[in-house]
Structure formats: structure tokens, C-alpha cells
Amino acid sequence: MRIGKLDNETLARLVLGKTGASREEVITGASIGEDCAVLDFGTCDCILSTDPITASADRIGALAVHISCNDIAAHGTEPAFIMLTVLLPPSITEDEIGEIARQSDAAARELGVSIVGGHTEITDSVNRPLVSAVAIGRAAKQGAKEAPAPGDIIIVTKSLALEGTGILAEKYADKLRRILTDEESAAAKAMLDRVSVVKEGVAAGRVGVSAMHDITEGGVLGAVWEVCTGKGVGAEIELTSLPFEDVTLDVCAFLGIDPLRLISSGSMLIVTRPDKEAEMTAAIEEAGAPGTVIGRVSEAADGIVLIGRTGERETIGSPGPDEVYKVVFEEERNQ
Question: Which class would CATH give 24-139?
Fold first, then answer.
């Protein structure tokens, strides 16, 4: 099978629906387009999310914390606790293990999150470090959210493809010297320091959203498809509104990668009512994350559409494997 997370059709056919016993405490369970599970814990709701980090070894400890905590923030909730499962190949050194722990500790302290447990193991089942995190948050009891409706605006925070650009800039630093100056290379690598969306997610939750999604594998188009499909609506996205930094476009063009489908941790997708646009953009800007309106929700029958530079319309389909796997794992396979 193809490298990357399961495509949504395969996920729905083989996995979803096979989720064990039905429990009355489950408010939100496993489904396409949902970043978190929500459980009724009586006086509060427990928010949970899990994610593995496989494509980046250099900053795997920090990314494992940030990416899972981002999903909690996509519920509008501050993450509080995290557990880490760390699987390491026999070739790992003690210094490398210590560096993963140091990164995880620093990222958790930055977010005010406590690492409360996990598991660490050396195994020949992996050929590179793999860290899987479970993040946990606690939220006040909430009523049902308003569902996305035609006319709602779609906002993304910061710049798109921050994580993907940073991963590629670190892994292919020598090759990218052909097109990047030292300053541009440093700026691209530093994008991995901007992957947290916790502050803007919590700020957006206070204003009120009809949907929110951390943009990860599959990039911005994958995130739009997952949210809209999961909520039963369509969307129109304006290509010229998508906020990419020049260095991202340069790296993607050189490596033959589509930036619209490149992993984009560091940017939150926010859907909200049009009358909240000014309040929302002000709130997330105060949280340090400029927002850009990239499109609007439409009727489900209209589909999910990307409007090009000259007005051409392209239907967005189910996301395939993330673009980062085209080069990261393909090169390793050929070595």
C-alpha cells in the first residue's frame, strides 16, 4: 500500500465502524474530519487526541508534543497532559535518546503541558525513531456546536506548509543550496519552530467557531476536504488567497511538490459565521497568528472547489498521501 495515512475511503471501509463497544460517555468518537475525541466526564468534558511522528527525525521530540497538542487546540481547548510512546531502532545512541527527551520536555514546558507517562522501547520493528503521543485536555461542559452553513467564512492562520517546508529544508539542505541563500535556508528550517497552533486555537474557540481543524497531512486542500465532507457541506477556495511564503514555493517547485497538499502543521483552519470575521481575526492576531480568509462554505451539492487565478474551477477530491512522502521516503527506498 502507499506510504502515508490511510486515504479516507479505505479508512471508512476498513476501520471506522469497528470501534468496540458503544458507551454513553462518548460525545464525539472516531470519524473523518474530527481532530479529537470528546468524552463526558460528568463535571467536565475530557478531550483526547493521538498522533505519531514519522517523517522528521531531527525534531521528533518537539513535534510529537506540538502536533498532538494542536489537535486539542482545534477543539478550542488548552492541552494539559500528554503521554509519549517512543519506539527506537537498535542503532540509536544514548545521546539521541536524550535529545528526544530534551526536545519533548522543552516543548511541553513551553505549552504548560505535563508529560504524565508513556513507554520507551528499543525494537527492530522500526528503522528510524517513531514517537506517538496522546494529548489530553479538559473543557467545561458545552452544548452542541453550530454546524458549518453556506456563507460561513474559512480562515487559515499564519502561513501554509510550515512543517513541510521545515522538514524538507532540514533533510535536503545540501541539495537546496542550489536555489536558497543561507538566510533563506535558515528561515525555512526555522518554520519548524512555528508549528504550534495552541494559542490561536484557544483564542478562536472563545470567539466561537462552527468547525476548526489543525492542517496536517494532505495540506490545506486535504483539511478543507476532511472538514467539509465530515460536516456535509461544500466550499469554494480562492487559490490566490492562500498564504504561502516565497521560500515554501521555491522549495516545492525545486523538489516537484504541490504546496497545496503538503503537511501544514502550524496553520489552523477555522470556519466561522461571517458576522464574526472582524472579531475572529482580531482575536487570533492578538494570539500571534495572523488570519487570512481563503474562501467560503457552500451547499454540499456544489462540491468542494478550488478557484484558480483566472477563474477556472477544479473539484477537490479525497486527499491522497501527503506530498512530503514523495521525496522523504521515496529517496530512502531507493538507497
Answer: alpha beta
